[in-house]
Amino acid sequence: MDITSFWHKHKAAWAELEQLVERFSRQPRKIGAADIDRLTHLYKKASAHLAYIRTYHPSDEITLYLNQLVSRAHNLAYKQHSGSLQQLAHFFGIHLMQLIDKRLGFIGMAALLFIIGGISGFAAVMADPLNLYYVLPQGMAEQIDPTRLGEGHGSINSPVISTLIMTNNMKVAILAFVSGITLGLFPIYLLLFNGLLVGSLAAVYFQADSSYAFWAYILPHGVIELTAIFIAGGAGLHMGYRLLVPGRFARKYQFLEAAKESAQLLLATLPLLVIAGIIEGYITPSALSLEGKYAVALVTLLILFAWYLLAHKRRAYNASLDLISK
To answer: Which helix (H) or strand (E) holds 230?
Structure first.
């Protein structure tokens, strides 16, 4: 059976299942025994449809739609009620990594845009140091002095600086997400521009033979901060993409689904930005040795990798349990 005929034959049952899932989620106290039976019946049918379509059309958007619908129905039909702490652990431990895996292409695109901006900024300043005045915001270039890097540790009010940094980073992340409604154009600009700034500064310190010290002040907070910015930027790019390329479903539906997933990704970046702000406010400007700062950067990188790998391990374990239970 071709995919279009398959869609027309079963779309009414899928729509009914989706309506039931919404009712179960929004009005659980108004659900009766007949509704539960109907949900279970439709869930089993949709699961069979998903198994078929995964075999013959694994890359089709209907497969993605069915996979999401069956997952939601499965959670309602079989998952035991868990406390808020368990839900939070599930979100950050498993669900978030599922979203990241699904949107890895857009997150990678966000990182690539930042890198392109960084290389462009570095090349421009290396070609002519005066280009720094065109790249950096007005008045900022005059304040750059590689010989004074690390001065004034004792005069820094770490709690105030940390709070300001957290607030600014969250604004950038939220802007990268919300601006996805501009068809992805503003997130592209934002990522390129931020890369341009970092690349330009890197060139200045490279010319002054201070690259080692420069990156020691960037990487401790930068590893986590950039990870969060790339995730938020990827979320914004995905929203813009779904506005331009809605696919088989209605543009409004695709955009709302993309916005829902992207909002979850954005919320997940906020704790990362808080941690990055604390590091940038307390550790980055501290009197800790340059080697110590690099060690902090390495630890943050290892923690992110361990988090990602552990989430995949837990997801595989839960999938095994689901198969056993069936």
So the answer is: helix 211-244
Question: Residues 176, 230: contact at Cβ < 8 Å?
Answer: no
| Band of residue 40 on the pLDDT scale cut at 50, 70, 90 | confident
Asked if 50 and 66 touch (Cβ cutoff 8 Å), the reply is: yes
Give the separation between CA 235 and CA 174, rounded to whole angstroms. 10
CA-CA-CA-CA torsion for 45, 48, 52, 54, nearest 10 degrees? 110
Q: Which residue has the higher pLDDT, 255 or 13?
A: 13
- Token readout for 305 is 């990798």
The pLDDT score that the predictor gives to residue 24 is 81
CB atoms within 10 A of CB 192: 17
CB contact at 8 A, 126 and 203: yes
Radius of gyration of the chain (CA): 24
- Report the C-alpha gap between 100 and 104 in whole angstroms: 6
- What lies within 8 Å, CB to CB, of 71 at 6+ separation is none
Q: CB-hemisphere CA count at 13 Å for 119?
A: 6
